[in-house]
Automatic annotation (TrEMBL):
GO terms for biological process: NAD+ metabolic process; NADP+ biosynthetic process. HAMAP family: NAD_kinase (MF_00361). Its cofactor is a divalent metal cation. The keyword Metal-binding applies. This is NAD kinase.
Length: 447
């Protein structure tokens, strides 16, 4: 099946997960439940919250993972169950079963290259020649990449450049024209790729050609076989959730309405003015984090934090970070937050240098709506940025609304979501790296 934007990719799922799953709801007959419960007497009780054998009869159903709670087939005691509500319960697959497949063979690819990096010129040329001449793909490249003097002046690359389709950020919409994305650079190229697509995002293959490479698992040395494997549809993917951010700003303008008969000392006509308030809304898709800080001011940041309309706390300090699980290993972990696997459906709230010893980072369920506003008694304004970009000032009356986006980024894995993530923790962040203790012999144990 195709997604809402017509892109020709999808995820495969095990056959068992595609079977019809029985729902237990308020329409169930109480007598039937009672009779089923009676038939189960004498059998050992299940220790998990998975569907009970009474509901599944002889068929083994795989437990469904949910973003907001247990599986709808879960029962609570002999008679209680969950009300069937498909809109409120969103299911996700086991991370190990998330595989990439193509409904139609991919024909177009977007190549994103880190700007002003001479070391990427040769890999970029090799990849583009391979995609156009060997694979017959339509290659999309940003116009400013081709404006690099080293590329523009390369006569051997002229024939290949003529086959490119170019675009400009914030001017051209390529969301319906690209089948998948290849990033050359560091983690910043992946964040930039996310910012280009405000809705459905094509699968992203990221090569480690930057400084850190936590989000870029592929090595360019064997790019031909790896790209061929992706085109054939044989790869695991991890769905990196994004944040949908809406910024509403208030603008106050004075409109002259009436002219008084009086004249001041300088001979200027005096006017009475009315203040007219207008609102402007902007929306962003964020892969890593939304950062609200105090900006250049020497005063503490003072912002109110609402969750689903309820004021939960006021942040006093250098600011606050609202991040996705993908962003938990970026700015948030440097501010003292925990590292969360990208398959965990959650939103992290991390204070930046809070003026309170008890203000610790918290994790809230994915799907809640967070709202950040400048406190009424704040001494200064605040500043906000989205994945380190689009930095802007937040004044009194402005608001920032954050929730989980319906359009995640499908990131192609080198092996699988679990191995790739722990490999990045070990190689990039040196997680739990220490010198091991020497072995203690039997003679030494006596002392």
């Amino acid at each position: 099946m195709e997604d809402s934007k017509g892109n020709s990719w999808a995820m495969t799922a095990p056959e068992s997960s595609m079977e019809a799953v029985p729902y237990c709801c308020a329409a169930c007959d109480g007598g039937e439940l009672h009779s089923r419960g009676t038939a189960m007497r004498g059998r050992p009780k299940a220790r998990s919250l998975s569907a009970s054998p009474a509901l599944c009869n002889s068929t083994d159903y795989r437990r469904t993972q949910s973003l907001h709670g247990p599986s709808p087939v879960t029962t609570f005691g002999p008679k209680a169950c969950m009300l069937q509500n498909p809109k409120a319960v969103m299911h996700i697959q086991d991370p190990a079963s998330q595989r990439l497949t193509w409904n139609k063979p991919p024909k177009s690819v977007l190549v994103i290259k880190k700007i002003r990096d001479a070391s990427l010129l040769q890999p970029f040329k090799e990849l583009c020649i391979f995609l156009t001449e060997v694979k017959g793909m339509i290659v999309y490249v940003e116009r400013k990449v081709l404006e690099d003097p080293a590329i523009a002046g390369d006569e051997s690359f002229v024939a290949v450049k003529k086959k490119f389709c170019t675009f400009r950020e914030d001017f051209d919409d390529i969301s319906d024209q690209v089948d998948f994305i290849i990033c050359l650079g560091g983690d910043g190229t992946l964040l930039y790729a996310s910012s280009l697509f405000q809705e459905s995002v094509p699968p992203v293959m990221a090569f480690h050609l930057g400084s850190l490479g936590f989000l870029t698992p592929f090595n360019f040395d064997s790019y031909q076989s790896q790209v061929t494997q992706i085109i054939e549809g044989n790869a695991a993917i991890v769905l990196r959730s994004r944040l949908k951010v809406k910024v509403v700003k208030e603008y106050k303008e004075k409109k002259p309405t009436t002219i008084q008969s009086g004249v001041d000392e300088k001979g200027l006509i005096l006017t009475n003015g009315e203040t007219e308030t207008s609102r402007r809304a902007m929306q962003y898709q964020v892969l890593n984090e939304v950062v609200v800080d105090r900006g250049p001011s020497s005063y503490l940041s003072n912002v109110d934090l609402f969750l689903d309309g309820h004021l939960i706390t006021t942040v006093q300090g250098d600011g606050v970070i609202v991040s996705t699980p993908t962003g938990s290993t970026a700015y948030a972990v440097a501010a003292g937050a925990s590292m969360i696997h990208p398959n965990v459906p959650a939103i992290m709230i991390t204070p930046i240098c809070p003026h309170s010893l008890s203000f610790r980072p918290i994790v809230v369920p994915a799907g809640v709506e967070l709202k950040i506003m400048l406190s009424r008694d704040a001494r200064n304004t605040a500043w906000v940025s989205f994945d380190g970009r689009k930095r802007q000032e937040i004044c009194h009356g402005d608001s920032i609304t954050i929730t989980t986006s319906c359009f995640p980024m499908p990131s192609i894995c080198f092996r699988d979501p679990v191995n790739d993530w722990f490999e990045s923790l070990a190689q990039c962040l040196h997680w739990n790296v220490r010198k091991k203790q020497n072995y203690l012999g039997s003679e030494e144990e006596e002392f």
